[in-house]
Every structure is written in C-alpha cells, then in structure tokens.
Amino acid sequence: MTDELFKVKTIGVLTSGGDSPGMNASIRAVVRTAEKFDIKVFGIKHGYFGLINNEIVEIDTHDVSNIIQRGGTFLKSARSDQFRTEEGRAKAAENLKKYDIDALIVIGGDGTFTGANKLSKEHNINVVGVPATIDNDIIGTDETIGYDTALNTALEAIDKIRDTADAHERMFLVEVMGRDTGFIALETSIASGAEVALLPEELTHVDEVKKQLHDMLQAQRRSSLVVVAEGDETGGALKLAEKIKDDFAQYDLRVCILGHTQRGGAPSARDRVLASRLGSAAVKVLNEGHSDIMVGVVNNSLKLTPMRVAISKKKDIDHTLIDLAKTLR
Amino acid sequence: MTDELFKVKTIGVLTSGGDSPGMNASIRAVVRTAEKFDIKVFGIKHGYFGLINNEIVEIDTHDVSNIIQRGGTFLKSARSDQFRTEEGRAKAAENLKKYDIDALIVIGGDGTFTGANKLSKEHNINVVGVPATIDNDIIGTDETIGYDTALNTALEAIDKIRDTADAHERMFLVEVMGRDTGFIALETSIASGAEVALLPEELTHVDEVKKQLHDMLQAQRRSSLVVVAEGDETGGALKLAEKIKDDFAQYDLRVCILGHTQRGGAPSARDRVLASRLGSAAVKVLNEGHSDIMVGVVNNSLKLTPMRVAISKKKDIDHTLIDLAKTLR
Amino acid sequence: MTDELFKVKTIGVLTSGGDSPGMNASIRAVVRTAEKFDIKVFGIKHGYFGLINNEIVEIDTHDVSNIIQRGGTFLKSARSDQFRTEEGRAKAAENLKKYDIDALIVIGGDGTFTGANKLSKEHNINVVGVPATIDNDIIGTDETIGYDTALNTALEAIDKIRDTADAHERMFLVEVMGRDTGFIALETSIASGAEVALLPEELTHVDEVKKQLHDMLQAQRRSSLVVVAEGDETGGALKLAEKIKDDFAQYDLRVCILGHTQRGGAPSARDRVLASRLGSAAVKVLNEGHSDIMVGVVNNSLKLTPMRVAISKKKDIDHTLIDLAKTLR
Amino acid sequence: MTDELFKVKTIGVLTSGGDSPGMNASIRAVVRTAEKFDIKVFGIKHGYFGLINNEIVEIDTHDVSNIIQRGGTFLKSARSDQFRTEEGRAKAAENLKKYDIDALIVIGGDGTFTGANKLSKEHNINVVGVPATIDNDIIGTDETIGYDTALNTALEAIDKIRDTADAHERMFLVEVMGRDTGFIALETSIASGAEVALLPEELTHVDEVKKQLHDMLQAQRRSSLVVVAEGDETGGALKLAEKIKDDFAQYDLRVCILGHTQRGGAPSARDRVLASRLGSAAVKVLNEGHSDIMVGVVNNSLKLTPMRVAISKKKDIDHTLIDLAKTLR
B72-112: per-residue pLDDT in tens? Predict the structure, then answer.
C-alpha cells in the first residue's frame, strides 16, 4: 500500500456527513502537521458539495488558531447527491487536479468514506479517512471523534432529568441518538444509573421491559429512567411511551428526546486529543504513500484500516458492558 | 396583617408543584434561619399529599447541609387531588395541629399558593409562600427561584444546537418551556442570537414568521434558529414545523424540544442567592406575624404580596426586551 | 445633555481594561443597533492603544455573527500609558476625526471611563460608557457585564472544592477576584454555603475568624470553606493561611486561588441579555444626543449616569446580603 | 492465586488517599454487584483510619442510590499514620474479623495499595485494589478512575484562561496537578493548544523554554499558554515565572494554579463507566478467589495485576503524545 517514490505536496481537507465535536481540532492538526512537512493545505467548504462546486481555499496555521475548542466545523458540512453519481465524482476529481491537490483527507463517518473510496478507485486519487461521528459505529477505531463529547452531553442532560424525576417520583423515557447502534444509549445508561436501556443491538420485548420496571418500582424505587436509542426497534421513546403508558399511569410518564444538542458543544479533552492524533496521523500516512485507508486508534496505537473494510459493517457493541448494565440495575 | 402577640414556635415547610432548581437552597435557608430564632422545623414530604398523609418529620441544620447545590427537592414534590377538596384541606389542617405546627411555608408556583391561600382562610393557618418555578410567571417578584438556572440550561443547549446548525446551514426550531408565558423563550432568544422568537404573549402570524426567515436567509445567513415557547399559539415547535416545512425544504428543517432537562441541574449563583434570601425572609416575616402573603424580591428589596394578589394573574413580560430582540436580529 | 440637532453618522467602539464575558455580546448589539439607525461602525482594536495607533477598521453585522456566546473580546483589550497623557489623547482625537467618527462607545470599567471622560472634555467628543467588569464595582448600574458569569464560574469551582473538602474533612481557603470590592466573595459565599467570607468592605479580625471556625468545627462540621476576596485586608488567602494554620493544624489547611479562570468562559444568559441591552442603548442615547454618560440598568430600567459620577466612587455592597450570609452559616 | 474452595460472604469497602471523581460510582458498583452474589457489604468510613477506629457500617443498594453522579466519596477518605505501623494493621485485621469481613476492596492510589498489600501479607486477608486517582500514574490500567474528569476540569479552566489571554495578548503559566507524572499536563496541553508543556518526565531547560516562546511570539502569536505540571523540575508555575519574567516583560506574565478544583465535580461519562466496571469486577474476582491483586482495564479488557507489581513503579507517559504536542504547536 505504500509507495516510496510518491511525495505529497498539496492536500485537500474536508468534513462531511453529520458534524461532530472535534472536527475543528482535527482540521487544525491536519494543517499544523502538513506545515511541518512543507505540504500546502486547501480547505474544501461544504464537504463533497464544495469539492464539486469549487469552494476550495488555501488555509494555514493562522486559520486554525483558536478553533480547537469549538464544536461544529468551520469548513462546514453538507449533503451532496451529485457526489453519489459518477459524473459528480468526475467533476470533483477535475477540481482536485485544477488546484494540484494530490491527496485528500476526508473527516466524517461511513457515508463519507464510501464516497472517498469510490473517488479513489475511479480517479486514482490518494485519500485518507478520519473517523468522526458521534455514533461511534465505525470499525477500525476504538472510538470515533465526537463520541466522548456526545456521551457527556447526553449524560449531563440525563442527570438533570434525574433531578426532576426524583423530585416527582416519575418515570422518564429518554431518547438518545444512535440510529443503527446503541453505543450512546448503553454507556449513558450505565453512567446515569438508568433502570433500563433499549438498544438496536438487542431484541426488545415490551413485556419484559414492563416487568423489569414493575419489579424495580416494587423494590422501593419511586422514580425510574429508561434510556432508549433512537434506532431501537420499538421505534423510539415516543412509541415506547404509547405502548407502556397504561401500565404505569400512576407514574406520570414523561418523554424527553435529547436530539441535536448531542451534536454540538466544545469537544471533551478525550475528543480533542483523539482528533489531534488522527488529523496528524492522516497527513503522515499520506506522506508515507498510503492511500484508500482510514486512520484509527485501537488499543492506544495508531491503526490503518482499508476503506473498503471500514465501510463493510457497523462496529459491534461491547457485550460485557451490556452485562454490566444489567448487574448494576 | 401583623400581630405583635403571635410568636411562632414550630413551622412546617413543603415544596409543591413542578420542581425548580434552588428549592433545596430555599429549604436550607428556612431551616437555618428558623434555628436562629429558636423555631422548630418540620419537613413535609411530597407537598400537600404528604401533609394530608402524615409524611411529616423534624429536620435540622444537618439535614440541609450539602444540599444548596443540588437540583430537585429532597422533600420531594407531588400532585394532590385531595388537597383541592375541603375535606383534604381539613385533614391537612388537622395534621398541622397534631404536630403543633403553627405556620406553614410553601415553596412553589401559583397552584401551590392557591392551595395555601384556601388552607389559610378555611383553617386560620399562617402561611407564607416562596415563589419557585422555572416559568417566572409569578407577580410580586422580579424573578422566581429556578428561572435563572432554567434559562442557562436552555441557553447552553441552544448554543450546542447552533454549532450543528452552522455546520450544516440548517434551520432549527427549538421549543423551550413556558406554557402560559414566554419568559424563557424571550430571554434565550436574545441571549442565543436566535433569528425569531415565538411567545404566548404575542399573536403569531405564521406568514410573518416565514417572511422574516426568508428575509434573513436572503441576507446571507445560511443557518437559522427559531425559539418557540411551548405555549405559543402555533402549538409548539412540531406544529410550527408542519406549517412551514414546505417553504424551507432546502434547509433540512429540524425540531428540538428541550423539555424536562430545563427543570434540573445545580442551581445558578443567582438562584441560590435568591432562594436563600426568600427562604430566610419567609421565616422572618412569619415571626413578625405576617400571614397569607408571598415573599418576593422587587428592585433588589424584599417585597410582601398578599397571596390572593400573587395568584390573581400571570406576570407580564418585559416589552422592552421584545423590542430589543427585534432590533438585534 | 441632549442636543437635538446633532445626528450621529459614524461611531467607534472599543473594549478596554480587564476583559469580561459579555463584551462580545455588547459589541454585537452596538453594531446591529447602529445598522438599524444607518450608522456606520468602526471597531477599534486594543482599546485606547489602538485608538492612538490607528488600529481602526469598519465592522458590520457579519463580523459580529456567532460571537454572542464567546468570552473575551474580539476587539482585544490593552493597557495604554500614552492615553493617560494629554498628548496621547490628542492623537486619539485626531484619529477619530480622520475616520469621521463622531461618537465613541467605550466598553469597560472605571479606568476606561476616566479616560473617556477626559477625551470628551478635552476634545469635545461624544462618548458613552458601557459598564463591563467582572468586579461589579461601578455605580449607576445594578450589575456590570461579566459579573454574573464570573460569579457562576467561581461558584462551580468552589462546588468542586467542596467535594474534596468533604471527602477529606479539610479546611479550604478559596481566594476569588475583587481587588477593591467583595461582590464576588459575598455572593459566592452565600451560594456555596461557605462557613466564612472575608471582604474588603469589612474589617477582618483574624482572631474572630479563628473563633468562628472553631465554633463551627465544634458544632460537628468536619470540613469548612472560607471565601476570601483578593483585596481583603488580610492580604488574600495565602497570607490568611499563614496566620491561622497553626490553629487548625489537624485540618490539613489548603489554599486555592481561582484567579483568571474567573474572567473567561461563555457569558451567562443574564450577562448576554444585559450586554445586549446596554450595547443597544449606548447607540440609541448617542443618537438622541447624549454624551459623556454611562448607560446602566437599575431596577430593570435603563439609567443614564454622568461619567464623572460613574467614576467618582466604587459601588457599595448590599449589607442585607452580609447579614444573610451570617444568618445562614 | 485462585482458591476454588473459598467463598466470600462479607466484604468491606473503603476509599483512601486523595479523593477522585468516580469513587462513589465505584462503591455503588461494589454494593450492587455484591448483592447479586448474596454478599453482605460493610462500608468503612475514613479509609484505613476508620478501619482501625471501627467506623464500619453495613450498607446496601439504597445507600448507594443517586450517588453515581457525585464527586468526592461518601465513605470519606483520610490519612492514617497508624496504619503504616504493624500494630495499626493488626488492629485493622482484628476489626475485620470482628465483623466477619472475609475480603476487603480498597479504592485509591499506590499509597492505598501499599497498605493493602501489607495487610494481606501480614494477616492473610483477601484484598483487591481499585485504581482511583486523578494522576493516572498507576500501572496495570490504561486509565485510573477520576483522571478523565480531572482532565476535562483542567481543560475547561484553561479554555477560560485562553479567552482572557487572547483578549489581552498575555502570556499565562498554568499549573496543573501531577506531582510525579505529567499525564494531566501533557493531555491538557494538546487539548488546549498550549504553546509549551513542562512535564516531570522530561528535563526542562529554561533557556529552551524561553527560546520556544520567543520563536512563537515572533511568528505572530500574540498570546501564549504554558502548561506546567506541579511536579516539573522547575518547581512549578510560580518558580518558572520568576525565572522567565524579565524576558517577557511586555507580555504581562500571569500565573494560574488550578489546584484542588481538579479533584472534584461530577465524574465524566468515561469515569463513571470505568468506575462501574472496576467496582463490579473487584467483587467478581474476590468471589473467584483472587487476592492481593489490582483490577484494571487494559485495551478495553479487564486485567488483573499483582499488588506488588502495581506499586512497584509509576506508569510511563505515552511518548507518541509528547511528539504530537510538539508537532501541533
């Protein structure tokens, strides 16, 4: 995968897909590391949309100063239906050539990587992926950029809900993000001491949920929290509420959907360090001649994963944590 | 209203209605001030429900140590349909006599005060109200306990949503609490730099809202935030979204309902100081012989308002702030 | 003070002195309000230093978008010894003329206002002051911009210190900002439930402090917090520690100086609203022909105070709060 | 190390040494897991001091409800000189027998483990250690309980200091905790974008530090942050300031010592999950017959380390992170 003769002179960097806290820290690391290697950097605005539409501008170390602590992405993100077509990608490749950009760093999730993988294959463009999504569902890295921040944001919200649940001895169903995977739901349920967690990874039998809640309320708990991943097969917190409300009428059942607050905010220490490591590594591995790979951190070490592998499936949840959640209820 | 001969020896304190951050700080101030006057304090659990059902226990300074910073209420809150009946209140009055409680401090909102007012009239019981609700809708005080914290909680959430709105150049409709009044919606909209705020106090013409949003988006703003009070006549953020989504299809309109997260959390400095002032004042004015009044802070000074006045209407919003919001858009 | 014929066409705005959270929100309000009145705005970087050295640049509504939530000041602040001289101020006045700036809004504390007052008198320049300092020591306004945020920042730090003080049953001396006044010390001591507060406004007898602490420790409290204003006559927390450490040897006395963390951070809801009100009002009163005045909010209404009055003395602390602190210990 | 015949019926749990956020979550996990195994739990207050002085009380699931989110430790911590003596430990062992406690879980750092190791050897008592210290300096676990929270607390403070450093274009020396190791200093310096970090693990040449700062200030940076571990050989931030202040006179050099705020606060999501895993694992491994070991998480899996190994040396810092910090400056 490495090619000793190749020497990167100019790279492009973009953020794509759902934004996540730490994307800015990652762009900063790309720019500052590139500078050390005398590589010129172009920032591409609005992801693949901007790549096709020529929103490409040179950026340097001053453009990325004082952004490490900011949520969102100053390069903006966007969807691009055009990039899903061969014509769109051809136009993108053309633009890269126009600016003499010989390699592209894409920061985002699996949708982003799927696009990059096609661009790489069709137009022989060097690409490296940096995994950034609050969902943490990418294989090839223990954590994705933004996950830790989203977890803490959701947890702080649930802590606040617990205050009012306790004061009123109510039952709350709290929906957290996670369309396909239950990472946020599982870890926030453990960390908040929730009574039950519903994950897309497990079959949810509403009758069992009811029974668990009944048993807990019997055992002198007078408030309870259920954390529900948006992608749980019950259909989310509102639908679950419909299904169980008659059984818990006396608990004044309430629903809270945390929603997009989980995407924003200053990144946590962990996310900033991870974003810095991966952004910096992306430049280094490009410079070493790698392409069509994703950088990740596994067991505290840098790991390279071929793009096609990274997009082949969703990451598995840690089943020992599911057991832990059940033990601690 | 004052009776020089009356000397309070034992007071009861309860929290009732929706909980709000600072209730614990207020209970603490009641207990510690009472101690200085050699007054015994009984804590009544679960509000009027517990008063009727005998959940009454003596509390002292140690019971309230290390609670000033906690959200919720350690005395719990609850609804009591029984207290809405004469029989219920008679039973409550009986219990107060059983414990030789000669005065009652009720911490809550206008529903709480309505009950206290009846109890006072029907059974000649000395009551003082301490205004605590995140809605800030009580007259006789510039602010209610919990309002400032709720404002900051909602604002921090909106700041996070702004991050992702900016990254994606999306439009967000954010619903904040406020069933009858728009205090939270108005102040968070100013503080977050929201493009539009919809309040129960103003007629909302959906066509005008659309026009404002169109004008702003024309003027090179590519993301926008609309803050909607839950009690706005449009029916809240979800209903508003239904009405405008076709006009802003390209902005990938999203809805966020902040919900009960706004009730919890460690109280802000301002709320803890206000709660401490009012809890302490409640004991003092009882000791001076006042009854059937609410304590408040108006223009930085303690103000007493007769209960019947305090419950006669909702507080008006500050119209200079509505003008300010419009100027700064 | 008003002059009906005068019509402002161009204003300058600067931030000076110690920065405080909300300065950016205030600049934003100046720019957006000016726009409504068709007034051009120049931003002056580095306060009076930049005014003398020509760091003057036109700013518009886009320059101030997405800054309402940021701490610090994007116009920067600086000290300027030159501006303390007549020559310096003459040069500043000359620059204002060069840019056709017919009025100046200065955002800062009493040092800032003293300079503006001289500039106004010596060169007949219209100036309006906006009170922004975390110390809250300016008369003519109930609160200064930044005070509420600093209070909450200090309080959150003290809450954390309380955790470890309780775990170890230790005594902590915590120093908060306040060189001449004890506003932060007094309100954080009430809000944190500190055992003792030492303020510049009160004579501190170390023997009395020792006695109070001894009494409290006798009364079964095993940890204690003393909040000390940096300007307290003991000389601050480190010096106090020297004086009392031998008497409390068993409590493993610790000192924490909160320092400059109190200056930064995202402004609170209250500070953003206040900053927005005052920035907007500054433009309006200039436009109405006022000059050499400070805008403030007293009892929830806008109040104008002549500059010479605003700088004539420090604001008094609220003595009812001192009493409250003592009652609740 | 395992003994199939041994069956634990009663365990004691204590926290000792410097407190760290997550200790409560860990105690909760011990109690709830023990309950699943029908094991009785005694809470020992004030660490080894309380073990010697008989502060031992049975605790169950209700005692640990609603504590997962609290900083500090409800079992309190304390130093015990007596436990450092053979007589002290003999008395401790006697008390354990008196209560029929057949195994002890100690939550703390290497000082705590050294004591437990001796107790185990001298009196054949089954002990398991749970690593909890903000310093993260224990081998046998990737992270210690409390480290992630301390990191975020320090980072938030540094972010605030950055606001004021930028506004004034000042230089700040910020001292973070870390007497023997630079984990907090290194990771916060990367995450905050600090210009320089001084760690106990590296020789610090003050002349080089000066040169680096001069170079950066030349390169158009007008503010700068230096993060200093308290255990750096310069002697900490105050001493460093003495050494360099004359060279940077124009930058109005300031020092900030973050101190004990880093110990408190609600634990982060990561710390709560880690504390829950390790607390739960401690019970399980005791039940499986292990003793005189420490539980840790290495590469996302549970790892057991003999106590004598765990206390044999401090954990090494990750040198790839030191390189990263230098690359990103």
Answer: 999 999 989 999 999 999 999 999 999 999 999 999 999 99
Cβ count within 10 A of residue D98: 10
Asked if the interface predicted TM-score (ipTM) of this complex is over 0.90, the answer is: yes
Class for the domain spanning A10-146+267-310: alpha beta
Dist. CA B166–CA B144, nearest whole Å: 33
3-state secondary structure of B145: strand
Is D191 within 8 Å of A36 when comparing Cβ atoms? Answer: no
The confidence score (pLDDT) of residue A2 equals: 47
The segment(s) of chain B belonging to CATH 3.40.50.460 are 149-263
As a whole number of angstroms, the distance between CA A15 and CA D138 comes to: 38
A270 to D36: CB separation less than 8 angstroms, yes or no: no
In chain D, alpha helices (H): 23-36, 47-52, 86-98, 110-123, 147-168, 183-192, 206-218, 237-244, 269-287, 307-310, 319-328
* Cβ distance of B160 and A260 shorter than 8 Å: yes
Nearest chain C CA: its distance from D169 CA (Å): 8
D329 and A28 within 8 Å at the Cβ level: the answer is no
pTM score:
0.96
**A150, two tokens:** 């989203």
pLDDT over threshold 90, residue A305: yes
Rounded distance between C-alpha atoms, residue D159 and residue C71, angstroms: 10
- Residues of chain A with C-beta less than 8 angstroms from the C-beta of D188: 269
Phi-psi region of C15 (alpha: psi -120 to 50; beta: other; left: phi over 0): beta
Contact B139, B173 (CB under 8 A): no
Q: What is the mean pLDDT of each run of 10 residues along chain D (329 residues)?
A: 67 96 98 97 98 97 95 94 97 97 97 97 97 97 98 98 92 96 98 95 90 86 89 94 91 93 97 98 96 97 97 95 95
Neighbours of chain C (3+ CB pairs under 8 A): B, D
Task: Tell me the C-alpha distance between B225 and B159, whole Å.
Answer: 10
For the purposes of burial, counting CB atoms within 10 Å of the CB of B35, is it exposed (0-12), middle (13-18) or buried (19 or more)? middle
Residues in CB range of C174: below 8 A, 6 or more apart: C157, C158, C161, C194, C225, C226, C227, C228, C237, C255, C256, C257, C258
Q: What is the pLDDT at residue B4?
A: 52
Range A28-50 average pLDDT: 97
Specify whether C215 is catalytic: no
pLDDT at A5: 54
Residue C33 CA to residue B79 CA, distance in Å, equals 47
**Of D19, D110, D135, D148, catalytic:** D135
Give the one of D25, D187, D269 whose C-beta lies nearest to A269's C-beta. Answer: D187
Residues of chain B falling short of pLDDT 50? 1-3
pLDDT band at residue C1, thresholds of 50, 70 and 90? very low
- Domain limits, CATH 3.40.50.450, in chain B: 10-146+267-310
The DSSP-derived string for B201-267 is: TS---HHHHHHHHHHHHHTT---EEEEEETTSTT-SHHHHHHHHGGGGGGG--EEEE-GGGGG-SSP
Q: In terms of CA atoms, which chain C residue is nearest residue B219? A: C62
| Straight-line distance from the first to the last Cα atom of chain B, in angstroms, rounded to the nearest whole number | 48
Dist. CA C147–CA B79, nearest whole Å: 38
Set C135, C148, C232, C292: catalytic member? C135
- Are A263 and B160 in contact by the 8 Å Cβ rule? The answer is yes
Looking at residue D219, its pLDDT comes to 79
CA distance D282 to chain C (A): 22
Top-tier CATH class for C149-263: alpha beta
Q: Residue A154: pLDDT above 70?
A: yes
Express each pLDDT in A52-64 by its tens digit: 999 999 999 999 9
Residue A226: name the closest of A325, A121, A80, A111 by CA.
A325
Nearest by Cα to D294 from D140, D124, D88 = D140
